[in-house]
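# step 3/5: fold
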Amino acid sequence: MPLITLNTWPTMSKEEKKQYIYKITELTTNDLQIVPDKIQVLIQEIEKENWGKAGATATEPDFANKSRVTNWSTKDSYGSNDTQIEGMAIVTVEIWNTFNQDTKNKWVASLTKLTSKFTHAPSDKVLIVIREMIPGNWGQNGVTGADSEFLPKSRTL
């Protein structure tokens, strides 16, 4: 609680992945007051030809413009062909529904900035999806988060 999954292009070095996992854990511990041993991070790398936005695939030479289309009929875009997209990211967070909107807003802003830095994605290409659940729908070591003794029981070896 939480499970944080980063889907991104393969642009990060092994050291950057290590730093990202550390920094996202630190950010989540500080902003959401979650104990570090309950934060899990997965990094999944997806080749550019398997990634699309606004009907364009990331391998297209004019992806920077096409991926920023705001009107399907006219193909109006806020992008240009003068720039390159060096990375994209989708961060999916599975988490208990115990945080207020202000806390989530602050955390999402910080998470976007951190993810953009490590994945080399412009911030408009970082999508954060928060999937909230009741604590009883989360289990670890055979006990759910609805148990008042979840933390000590989940840490039993």
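# step 4/5: annotate
The chain has a mean pLDDT of 95.
# step 5/5: archive (pending)
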